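Quick one, tokens below:
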């Protein structure tokens, strides 16, 4: 996803009043975006096939084809488009079904311009490629973490090294945005490496990972500038939760803090 391109947004809702209001919100936030409108799910699918769509605001209850059915067909087809579901009367079961089908968030009608702004900010942040470094002395663990990160919503360019010293050497030529740093390593432990890394690059965001309980090390990790502790194994939704908190984004309903995560 290229955030430098002009955004193309599709509004799919059978209410012309809602489409007009949402268009006003969108233009007020980003005046130069291209906005397409359709009034049912079949036309929404056709628009997605015929155009390069960046964001879809998709009503759940529409004639001919519901929003959930349209989302199901998109997932079956393999499209990973950024979809935000909308409804004035959806229950938790329906919202959860939308999450499982890959929707990013849910907007309850009537919603404000601020909620739409949050969605656009999230899209921009998720689309901006982040340089991510995995630091772990186990090649097997690095491979697993690489696979987990590859299934997250954020666009990542992922590198990996097997020690704190290698991480420091790599940072002389490049500056990662985010580092997943193992606590237990043979040369420098995670805290020691974190102090050195932040001295070299104060803005880098560090997530400490470990297969063991680090509750006793919270204070030293906080002093080293660690953002949070994560217990292995962890999963894509947990990484998405961490990155939403790291970048101050509104938290979609599909994400929640788990016992694996400790924010510092």
């Amino acid at each position: 996803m290229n955030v430098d391109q002009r955004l193309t947004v599709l509004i799919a809702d059978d209410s012309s009043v809602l489409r007009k209001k949402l268009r006003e919100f969108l233009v007020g936030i980003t005046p130069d975006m291209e906005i397409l409108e359709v009034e049912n799910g079949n036309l929404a699918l056709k628009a997605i096939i015929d155009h390069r769509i960046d964001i879809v605001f998709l009503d759940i209850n529409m004639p001919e084809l519901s929003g959930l059915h349209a989302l199901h067909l998109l997932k079956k087809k393999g499209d990973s488009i950024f979809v935000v579901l909308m409804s004035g009367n959806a229950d938790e079961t329906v919202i959860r079904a939308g999450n499982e089908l890959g929707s990013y968030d849910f907007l309850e009608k009537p919603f404000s311009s601020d909620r739409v702004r949050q969605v656009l900010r999230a899209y921009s942040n998720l689309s901006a490629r982040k340089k991510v470094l995995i630091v772990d002395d186990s090649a097997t663990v690095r491979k697993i973490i690489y696979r987990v990160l590859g299934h997250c919503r954020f666009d990542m360019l992922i590198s990996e090294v097997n020690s704190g010293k290698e991480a420091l050497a790599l940072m002389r030529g490049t500056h990662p945005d985010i580092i997943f740093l193992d606590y237990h390593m043979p040369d420098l432990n995670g805290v020691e490496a974190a102090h050195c890394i932040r001295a070299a690059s104060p803005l880098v965001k560090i997530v400490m990972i470990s297969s063991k309980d680090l509750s006793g090390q919270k204070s030293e990790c906080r002093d080293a500038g660690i953002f949070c502790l994560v217990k292995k194994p962890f999963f894509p939704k947990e990484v998405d939760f961490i990155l939403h908190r790291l970048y101050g984004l509104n938290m979609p309903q599909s994400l929640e803090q788990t016992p694996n995560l400790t924010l510092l």
